[in-house]
Specification:
globular; about 70 residues; 5 helices; single chain; mainly alpha
Length: about 70
């Protein structure tokens, strides 16, 4: 998503709307329960990513991804 947002120059205030359009399954259900908390200026891309990662990425998976990502 980040790469796509960069290439097509998505404004920061539209990132959450666009990303949530692509959610499916459990992630889409989760968003259905969370979206009312994401209104106004507190609805930031960073907050969305934090909430999404907290729900769907365990600390172990995050560590594994960080170790395997090429830098």
């Amino acid at each position: 998503m980040e790469k796509m947002f960069t290439v097509i120059e998505v404004p920061k205030e539209k990132k959450v709307d666009i990303a949530t359009f692509y959610l499916i399954g459990e992630a889409n259900s989760w968003w259905g329960t969370m979206k009312d908390d994401f209104v106004g200026p507190e609805c930031t891309w960073a907050k969305f990513l934090d909430e999404l990662r907290a729900k769907f990425y365990t600390a172990t998976i995050q560590c594994q991804k960080e170790r395997s990502s090429p830098n």
